[in-house]
């Protein structure tokens, strides 16, 4: 279901950035599945490469890449996400941080130029000479430059990673996941709502901020990962709000224009503590304690 929900964003990426978007996605998925299969074969573990978790990781990895990303960067990122972040911690359900986001951050630090070179959507191109690189909307806003309109941001007519630009497609996928009860809307709503409110309090344009960058992609598809997010409703609320606050702080006061990836990873690390603080007490526990105290 998650893979199906990502199809609209994939179609949008192919429409705006060309067939290369499909090539990078297929490459990422293939390397992720193959890496998981080979590792489990070599370590003589049960082969779970067909459970689609590696497919989803591969799709999300590609969606976090610019259309200009070299193939070898995609290969390295895919291997790192599956081998180091997922399998070396015990496989599916054992990793404590999101594999796709962790690998993306490592590659951003290791190959900043390859991971931050954006090109214009094909919609804007008038001739081959116009196929130039450009800054992302958040970077343009930080530099005081003109930024795309709300409708352009919503439809995906702007620079950015392959899967983050078309907000309309991402929302369509999110509605599908909620309708199929694959995810609950608590984390996305708290995440996006917190970014909106705190951005407004700090005097920034809240609508622009929630439509720009990877907020929708991160809030709907990565912050909701079962393994790396809280189980309780209270925990999910705290998690979503925490992601939103960290994102705003990085965007407004940090050196980087984007903060979604870092915010989710930081909150992933805090999930065990959030679970402990928000774990509901078993029914009747207080009464038992009082009874023991009287006896």
Report on this model:
It is a single chain. By secondary structure, the protein is an all-alpha fold. 63% of the residues lie in helices and 1% in strands. The chain has helices at 2-5, 7-17, 19-42, 53-63, 71-86, 99-110, 112-115, 137-142, 150-155, 167-179, 186-201, 206-211, 215-222, 233-253, 260-278, 285-294; strands spanning 118-119, 133-134. Helix 2 packs antiparallel against helix 10 (167-179). The chain starts with a helix and ends with a helix.
Mean pLDDT: 88
Going across the biggest sheet, name each strand in turn. Answer: 1-2
Shape: globular
Helix content estimate = 55-70%
Low-confidence segments: 124-130
The radius of gyration computed from the alpha-carbon positions, rounded to a whole number of angstroms, is: 20 Å
Order of helices and strands: HHHHHHHEEHHHHHHHHH
Number of separate strands: 2
* Number of helical segments with 4 or more residues: 16
Q: What structural category do the secondary elements indicate?
A: mainly alpha
How large is the share of residues in beta strands?
under 5%
For the sheet with most strands, the description reads:
2 strands, antiparallel
What is the end-to-end distance? Answer: 54 Å
């Amino acid at each position: 279901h998650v893979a199906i929900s990502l199809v609209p964003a994939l179609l949008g990426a192919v429409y705006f950035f060309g067939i290369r978007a499909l090539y990078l996605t297929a490459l990422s998925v293939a390397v992720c599945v193959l890496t998981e299969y080979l590792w489990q074969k070599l370590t003589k573990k049960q082969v779970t490469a067909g459970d689609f978790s590696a497919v989803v990781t591969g799709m999300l990895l590609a969606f976090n890449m610019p259309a200009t990303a070299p193939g070898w960067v995609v290969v390295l990122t895919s291997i790192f996400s599956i081998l180091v972040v997922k399998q070396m911690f015990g496989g599916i359900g054992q990793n404590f941080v999101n594999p796709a986001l962790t690998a993306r951050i490592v590659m951003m630090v290791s190959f900043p130029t390859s991971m931050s070179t954006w090109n214009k959507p094909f919609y804007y191109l008038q001739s081959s000479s116009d196929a130039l690189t450009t800054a992302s909307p958040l970077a343009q806003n930080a530099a005081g430059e003109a930024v795309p309109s709300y409708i352009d941001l919503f439809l995906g007519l702007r620079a950015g990673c392959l899967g983050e630009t078309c907000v309309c497609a991402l929302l369509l996928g999110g509605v599908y996941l909620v309708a199929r009860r694959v995810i609950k809307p608590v984390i996305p709503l708290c995440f996006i709502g917190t970014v909106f409110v705190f951005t407004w309090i700090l005097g920034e344009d809240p609508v622009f901020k929630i439509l720009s960058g990877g907020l929708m992609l991160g809030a709907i598809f990565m912050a909701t990962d079962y393994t790396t997010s809280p189980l309780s409703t209270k925990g999910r609320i705290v998690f979503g709000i925490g992601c939103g606050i960290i994102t705003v702080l990085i965007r407004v006061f940090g050196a980087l224009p984007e903060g979604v990836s870092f915010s989710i990873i930081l909150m992933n690390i805090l999930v065990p503590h959030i679970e402990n603080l928000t774990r509901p007490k078993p029914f009747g526990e207080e009464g038992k304690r009082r009874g023991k105290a009287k006896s």
